[in-house]
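Input sequence (395 aa), recorded before submission:
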Amino acid sequence: MECLYCDNKILTESKEHIIQNALGGHLVSTEICCPKCNNSIQKLIDDEFTSILAPITTRIHNLKKTSNTKGKPSSVAYGLYHGETYEIFIKGNTIVSCPQLSKKLKRNLTSEDINEIEIIGYKFDVENRSFINGICKIATNFAVMNKVPSNNLKDKMTIEISDDLLTGIEFKYPVIPFVALNHFDLLMETGTHIETLYHHLILFNIGDQLWCYVDLFNTFQYYILLSDKWGGGHIYTSYCQKIERIDRTPPNVRVRKPKDILTYSQMYQVSPTTDIDTFKKSIADKIKKAPYECDINDIVKDNVNILSPILDFSDDKEMILEYLTDVSFYRNEDGDLNPRVFRRFSPFKTGEQLRFGSYPDMIYDLMNDNQNSIRKYTFSKFERLNQYLSFSSNM
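Predicted structure, token format:
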């Protein structure tokens, strides 16, 4: 196996996180790059990329990382003090400094000063080159992990090597922000509250185009066109993982009647038994072994179940009808997602006829015609994430 960046043989294993560990990424591969390039890529791409997202990660108090578990990155936010706005620095949900205010007051801030600062927003730039490089690197990693040949990827990669050391890299893949184009996706993404934070990746092709869909924190969603000369046949592979640490505390199981055993067995997916000690142990073992990898199908099912009673009280019959039409496109009779359709295609109507098109291509057309709808969708996603983080930090 050759290193993706320097083309040298990988003689020593080096674990590369597909999604950066600082973002809670768990999936790793030892077949992407050599140790030297792995170290370089962290400095060239990962450090700046993860610092941009630090306003998110610093607010997740139980972020699950596989290494450097004690490190808490700092982030920049905006704070209100006596009616004026200042740039503030935060670490682990705590305001640590505000140089602008200190300069104005001509002294170091006291704890009383800090307590009077109200956080009103977080600063991160999702349109700069460092952010785009970070998103593209995730997509590239996922493609390499899934055996996509490097020659399909390197056409749009600028790699600089000096004295056998990676000194520069830029990904020049076309990147398209995701925006929901149908009622099913729109209600899934903005019509429900976040129940579980997750990262989600999908590698797929549409004809000769090879795409990777990247979704970080249920919010930062992008399509990356890795190649428009894909000739490797049909591909659709998905990976989804929870971000927050799983509470593995065994529940207080109380069995008063046989029906309780059935209820617990269905809740925790264990075999029912009248031996209560054995039953409790099987539940505890199930929780102990619960994986962080999850199925996007289960997440979609949960959201559909949450939406059902809400839609029952809606007076917008036309919207409900279109939503149900979209549901039938994405889900089969058993309520499962139709294979190889989710985030790949979007349904639309031509007159009375239901058709479907390439999701990223349809969004690209929208980008040229209606930027406001993309901004509105992006804002609603940020607001949704902010509500979740604000709620969870107060628990």
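Checked by second reader. The CA atoms of residues 92 and 307 lie 34 Å apart.
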